[in-house]
Amino acid sequence: MAPKEIPPTPQLSQSHSGIPSRLYEKAQYAKSLILDIATKKQDSRKRPLAIPKGIDQATFLKAIKELERELGKEHVELVDKPLRDGWYMEHPNTHDAQHVLDDEELVASAVVYPGSTEEVQKIVLWANKYKIPIFPISIGRNLGYGGAAPRVRGSVVIDLGRRMNKILDINPDDYTCLVEPGVTFFALYEEIQRRGYKHLWVDVPDLGGGSVLGNTLDRGVGYTAYGDHWACHSGLEVVLPTGEVMRTGMGAMPGSSSWQIFPYGFGPMAEYVFVYHAVETRTDESSGLFSQSNMGIVTKMGMTLMPNPGGYESFLYAFPNESDLAPLRQVEIIRPLRVSNILENVAQLRHVVQMIALKGKPRSHFFSEGGQIPDDKAREVARRELNYGDFTWLYFGMSYGPKEIRQYKLDIIHKEFMKIPGARRIDPSTLPPDDYFWSRDRIAAGIPDLEELRWTNWYPNGSHIAFSPVSPVRGPDAMNLWKIARTSAAMYNFDIFAAFCVGLREMHIIVEVVFNRDNPNHRKNALACMRKMIDDAAALGYGEYRTHLALMDQIAGTYNWNNNALMRFNERIKDALDPNGILAPGKSGVWPARYRGRGWEMNGTRQSSEGEGVKREGTRL
Ligand code: ADP
Fold it and tell me: How far apart are the CA of 210 and the centre of ligand 1, in A?
């Protein structure tokens, strides 16, 4: 366990974003692994403010004073102090803690802490008055996708979570809750336990420190049978870029008691969702104006909770076959089982190199050679260091329901999986209590955990960035994406941390590249590697579901059917809702008119978070 001198991690009893006491030792241990190998010097010099383009320093400082008068001086902070990266549990709200660009690129000029929806409205009106870009975060732990960083250098970050972190309602009869931005999965889970609601489950992602609301808006996923967070939400309260506040769905009716149970309301929808009606039935995909968007600031969100299925049982299969053939064969077997809900949660097929990295030790602990580790070398290390015998891929799954119902499904799964030559079921009772399997078991049972980040220690100052394309659940597609990822990573000397995640009818392959953020060359290569994967995938018709701030323009550019019809539509809505272009300009590649055509897009040659300026007052757009 952690040596004594590791500084304490804030706990949930002390901070809205803290660690639950049951995970305190685990957090200290995770932190010790990071600190053991950290080499990046945390600069102590005072830095100049990153003033946003389009405003001079004196006017900016005058505007900040005005905001201090509105919100209270203690709720407005200038970002003129050293940038400290921290770690997952003590992350910054000023910049990208795992920066793939220079840390001075995607950086805030100030951070503000509203205490209510009314104060969010005040901030928005203030931003319009001075035409200062603002960027909302809920918790800001969106690591791998930009963390708390704003897309436009010098934006004022609105840290909603610090003061707006109440669980407004947990309804044990309807299986719903209503939360503010600063409620983490940890906090929601702990509160449900405290109230003794054993029949309510929360669908949790790999790490429990994210905001329920922020993760859902960014279309994050969890690992119970609910999985797709956006599809599970019901009802938003939103501050629009001009300062008005509105509620979606049934929330638009004063006094409605159905806001969290029926997402549609009446008339055209600002958000389209297709909800789960039970564990067993899920309808389809979702989309919406306020998700992955810069059209509004969400101040409240309703979320459905899953009924406790009355029992659960995790299972694990190992596939030792040559790496290239395993995804091809396995994915074909998974598809019918997943669509018919025999496989009930987001299915995960994990590659051997990531499983080794989950030990939390750096690459140099296992391998001395450079380049991409070949599978046979990795298998050799895995046989020695892990508890799973010989494998290239591991499948983690969970079966829900009472014993006899689970057994029915588990028997089918076993019969199908064993058709793959060399497949082997690993008996969980042979695995020690600290094996990663049990972390997956907790997560798939809705118990938030903190183990997943260990693989980022592959390098000192380890950071990660993800390539996350979507494809049909078919062997040839899995093979195409696997080859793209593998060959691109090899070109740039990166190991590949790949997981095939099967949602329902679609599959995401999540390819994480881990780099040392203190090494400019490593950062440059990681970004170039991502850009190559994105282009190669787009050439075959595969697009990403979510991405880092630095890659948003490139990916938005691949969704260009019919002369960019979708982007032109988004821009029209953006310009109508946000005429001054103040809210998160450039988020998801959507630039307001004030910024368009002025070199703000990032691509392979332009890597700056600043363009050549913004449209000045009185000039034509
Ligand atoms: P988490 O900590 O859960 O990972 P973040 O707070 O970092 O989530 O939010 C993820 C992304 O979602 C942010 O980068 C931001 O663009 C967007 N976002 C977060 N909260 C809000 C909000 N309340 N309203 C609008 N967009 C938001």
Answer: 9
Cα–Cα distance measured from residue 225 to residue 204, given in angstroms and rounded to the nearest whole number: 11
CATH class of domain segment(s) 38-308+559-614: alpha beta
Q: In angstroms, what CA-CA distances link 52 with 47, 157, 595?
A: 15, 12, 12
From the list 141, 531, 546, 596, the catalytic residue is: 546
Cβ–ligand 1 distance for 463 under 6 Å, the answer no
Q: Which of 24, 29, 545, 559 is catalytic?
A: 545
- Reported as a single tens digit per residue, the pLDDT across 481-523 is 999 999 999 999 999 899 888 888 899 899 999 999 999 999 9
Residues 234/340, Cβ–Cβ less than 8 Å? no
The 8-class DSSP code of residue 459 comes to S
Residue ranges per structural domain of the chain: 38-308+559-614, 315-551
Q: Which of 93, 142, 203, 219 to mutate to test the pocket of ligand 1 (most atoms within 8 A of CB)?
A: 142
Q: How is 425-443 classified by DSSP, letter by letter?
A: EEPGGGS-TTSHHHHHHHH
- Which ligand 1 atom is the nearest neighbour of the CA of 584? 16
- Would residue 141 show up in a list of annotated catalytic residues for this protein? no
Instruction: Report CA torsion sign: 293, 580, 553, 160.
Output: negative
The CA 121 to ligand 1 mean position distance, Å, reads: 17
**What pTM value is reported for the model?**
0.95
> Tell me: domain 315-551, CATH 3.40.462.10, correct?
yes
* Ligand 1 geometric centre to CA of 136 (Å): 6
Over residues 419-430, the pLDDT tens digits come to 888 899 999 999
| Backbone region of residue 564 per phi and psi (left: phi > 0; alpha: psi in -120 to 50; beta: other values) | left
